[in-house]
Design a protein that fits this description.
Largest sheet: 4 strands, antiparallel
Strand order of the largest sheet: 1-4-3-2
Strand content: 25-35%
Structural class: alpha+beta
Number of strands: 4
Helix content: 25-40%
Radius of gyration: 19 Å
Number of helices: 5
Order of helices and strands: EEEHEHHHH
Distance between the termini: 65 Å
Amino acid sequence: MSSGIDSILRLSDFRIMKSYFEVRPGAASFEKAELHLKLDIAVLQSNDSESDMAVQLTVELNGEEADFEAAGFTGAVVATGFFDVATLKQERPDDWEPVLVYNAVTVLFGTVRTVYADLSASSPVGRVIIPTVNVGQILNRPEPETPADAVAATD
């Protein structure tokens, strides 16, 4: 039995904008402790319509040189989801953007995990399955201070 489910947020399309996985020569299978993830989230407004938004999720794996050297592999995947937010903005005018970001990251992260598994499947380190994440915890963590912020705070 199926029934129609109305959604206040509609994913109209998604694209993998960038994907790569690089392995150092001689790299062996990895330990899960060697997975260092960095996530970046950007919200983009369409020039054509106020109802069309995009959320871009970038997930870097062992992106720092020291992490790359220690693990023997690195990678990056950039996934962009395109959303119609007209109904969302009507029903939640005060907090539509956090709802958009939370749901977009939840949907896109699953896709990113699959891309990493596929990219790494035939590599010397073996299939890399990145762990699931708590999207709420990621979005609610305080932003790290930049060196400029720290200097400004001490003046």
